[in-house]
Amino acid sequence: MTVPFHIRAMYATDFQRGFREVLGALSSVTLSDEAAMLVFRKRLRSRVLTFVAIADDRVVGTASLLIETKFIHNGGCVGHIEDVAVLPDLQGHGVGHALVQHLIEECRKARCYKVILDCDPTIIHWYETLGFRPWCQAMRLDLELSPPAPQSQP
Predict the structure, then answer these.
(1) Considering the domain boundaries, does residue 33 fall inside one?
(2) pLDDT grade for 146, boundaries at 50, 70 and 90
(3) Residue 7 to residues 49, 58, 101, 105, 112: CA-CA distances in angstroms?
């Protein structure tokens, strides 16, 4: 079964189209509408590109792209793919593949010399079908965050 969909940049109204439900395929999303909007605006200011796959006016997939300008490689750019997620019922129907291909094309337009991502070992093969190959080793350090300090009122 093929589901017709198209890919576009994320809009703020996509929160009402199931965006957080799609991200739930990766991890729980507990942000309120107001908090999610603040994050969305911050990401736009930081030039984090978020794309969505839309089918029947609903978000069915998403992926994000950060483009980093390096000091090495003559100031070349690297594309970092993050948070690729598809509704569980539509996984295996080409939505994730199309999203990643779209991000790769965005990297080509930005003249990136490479595209990198981290993924769970269970889906390495899926990314290999898209042309990626294992490289180096990802590392992680979880930081304990203290609650933000209260803001004083003027």
Answers:
(1) yes
(2) confident
(3) 13, 11, 11, 12, 21
